[in-house]
Amino acid sequence: MFLGPLPERCDLDVECLERVDCGRYVREKVRYSVGPGERVSAYVCVPHDLQGPAPAVFCHHQHASRFDLGKSEVVGLAGDPDQAYAHELAERGFVTIAPDAVGFEERNWSPDGAGNVTWFELSTRLVRGRTLLASCLHDVSVALDHLISRPEVDARRIGFIGHSYGGRMAFWAPAHDPRIVASVSNCGCIPYRHSYTHDTGIQAEFVLPGFAEQHDLEDVVALFDRTALLISAGTTDKWSRGAEELFVGVQRLLGDRAELAMYDAGHVFTPVMRERAYRFLGERLSGRGPA
Q1: Which residues form the Dienelactone hydrolase domain (predicted)?
Q2: Distance between CA 257 and CA 285 in Å, rounded?
């Protein structure tokens, strides 16, 4: 109802543009269709010497107003090394996929390749009764379609991880696509009710007309099928505002499928935070459950 219509599906028509041996894994750059006339590039990291189909993780990049960055940051080719979780997870035996979100990196059509085009992408959808979030969620599902088509991937063990913008998507993606059975939100859990301030506001991708009148993130989590969720948050991070309050509602819905990790930190994804996130994904995608 609030998302509006989803984009039209089409054949993936996948092409591999390059393959690079990164030591413990091979990094492929692939391109596939997310809709008629629209193709997206993504990095797929496949560990060497897999002993059968492996768990896979969608790695969503951050925002940081760096529209020139996207997939390249999470595989460690550019940007902040603390954001290279697709690379680190591949080194730990996970297949990972990292596409560009709408308006970022190769999907940024501004003259210098770094301008903020997302508000244009939002407004031109809204006037036609569509939303940018519907497109973003559709893109996640298409990326998962590619993942589960690969022989290296166990389709029953699909995870999601993201920081900041990606941390927000870690709530919405499993609600939209039940193939995601474990999701990590790092420093991106701020509910709508805590976002009506000048220092936060509402990100373009999450503008859903009328949604927050009676709903919030707890209602999104209520749509989870079997997904386990780790909320990882910093005590001084404005994008983690309301984390503990939110967790109370989330735990009521998910029970022991919900976990909270609070850190005396700001808007960061430190090695300690990442190790906790990787352990959560390892436990939840192995079928063993929490430690």
Answers
A1: 73-191
A2: 12
Question: What is the CATH number for 159?
Answer: 3.40.50.1820
Instruction: Examine residue 64 and state whether it is found in any structural domain, yes or no.
Output: yes
The predicted-structure confidence for 124-180, as pLDDT tens digits, reads as follows 999 999 999 999 999 999 999 999 999 999 999 999 999 999 999 999 999 999 999
Q: How many domains does the chain have?
A: 1
Distance CA 49, CA 238 (A): 42
Q: Is residue 266 within 8 Å of residue 215, measured between CB atoms?
A: no
Residue 142 lies in a domain: yes
Q: What is the pLDDT of residues 196-232, one digit of tens each?
A: 999 999 999 999 999 999 999 999 999 999 999 999 9
User: How many CB atoms within 10 Å of residue 227?
Assistant: 26
Q: Cα(224)–Cα(163) distance, rounded to whole angstroms?
A: 20
What H or E segment, with its residue span, contains residue 285?
A: helix 271-286
Parent domain of 69: 52-286
Structure-token pair, residue 39: 């193709």
pTM: 0.97
